[in-house]
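Hey, sorry to bother you again with one of my protein questions. I've been puzzling over a protein and I'd love to understand its fold better. Take your time with it, there's no hurry, and the full record follows here:
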Amino acid sequence: MFNPDSMPRFHITRSALLLAVVLGVSGHLSAQAPPAGEDIRGPKSLVAIPQENKPPVAFWSGIAGAVLVTAIAAILWNKRSRRLRQHSPPKIALAALADLESSRGTITAEAFANRAAHVVRQYVADCFGVAAPRRTTEEFLQALTQADAPCLIGESDRLRVFLKACDLAKFAGSHLDTARRGALLQAARGFIAATTPIPHSKAVPS
């Protein structure tokens, strides 16, 4: 027999079930919907592909040219150094005096006297080991007395006269005409010839 009291509970239960289905479907759809910020997106900027910074050809050409010039200069300098080492100190000094003589009419008295004194001092330094690039004339002559070279002591007076004459032209403004310049060159050559070490000759077996 039909019970009227059960009718309201049936309607409430069905309504609750329908409401639950609607809420479940809407929740599922809202969970799958994309965010608003990702739904409408503008165009992306182009990605720039980095390129290698390769030096220009002129850069490498300049480096190669500089290396080539440096190598050639080094080779020439080594050849010149070997050629100079093959000559003895007297030959080097006499060649320098010959070069000075060729230009004695075109340079000042001070420059001439300075170069002449430098040639003789350099000869003594190279030949006898008396290095005195910054010593005064008196200091240089004093150093010669301590050198183990009797020929230098024997020619010390000639060297003193020569260096004093050069000092007068360098520091006192003494005038050096053509004749005096020639006399200085002759004195320098005479000093070098008198002090050039004589090479020891080999004994010839009898």
Observations:
- The chain is about 70% helix and 0% strand.
- The radius of gyration is 52 Å.
- The first helix runs from residue 6 to 32.
